[in-house]
Structure to design on (196 residues):
């Protein structure tokens, strides 16, 4: 499989076709998920062919957003995977594994294998990082652009409910990101408690 060529192909496609309205789900998010997925593979002992599959899934996981809709973007991404990856030498079995990883990122996340856990944790890695509020702000902007959220109070209530339900899956993120995420949750719970 020609990972480099597949990467160049999808990055060019995302660069050309993603809407400017996607303040969060833009190319920068895909690159962040790729970086974190690669680091998680290293810390979780995943390498070789499996690491390449995870990185490919990271590159394609939000490619369905080129259809410019939030609902069902994972399934759209899988259609792109099935349409384009055979040309880059990916076997049918690889493609199925990549699609399973992408579908596992659908909220609420449902990873069944370590590779799926890695992609899910990479996708929401920012929840336990210092750039949480900055990245969260871009998601709030995007949801407003698409009329999917009301005011800031509605957003903060949504964040409390999302963070309360969310779980990291890999041992790495349970250790490194979970404590930080819990602190953000506590801060937001305190803020939301002040609303009338």
């Amino acid at each position: 499989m020609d990972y480099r060529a597949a990467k160049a192909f999808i990055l060019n496609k995302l660069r050309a076709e993603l809407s400017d309205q996607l303040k969060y789900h833009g190319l920068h998010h895909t690159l962040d998920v790729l970086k974190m997925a690669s680091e998680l593979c290293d810390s979780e002992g995943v390498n070789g062919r499996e690491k390449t599959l995870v990185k490919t899934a990271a590159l394609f996981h939000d490619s369905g957003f080129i259809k410019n809709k939030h609902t069902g973007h994972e399934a759209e991404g899988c259609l792109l995977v099935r349409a384009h990856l055979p040309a880059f030498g990916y076997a049918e079995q690889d493609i199925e594994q990549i699609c399973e990883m992408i579908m596992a990122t659908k909220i609420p996340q449902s990873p069944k294998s370590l590779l799926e856990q890695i992609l899910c944790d990479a996708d929401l890695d920012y929840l336990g990082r210092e750039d949480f509020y900055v990245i969260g702000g871009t998601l709030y902007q995007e949801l407003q652009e698409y009329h999917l959220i009301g005011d800031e109070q509605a957003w903060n209530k949504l964040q409390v409910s999302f963070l309360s339900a969310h779980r990291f899956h890999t041992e790495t993120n349970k250790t490194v990101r979970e404590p930080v995420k819990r602190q953000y949750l506590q801060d937001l719970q305190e803020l939301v408690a002040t609303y009338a």
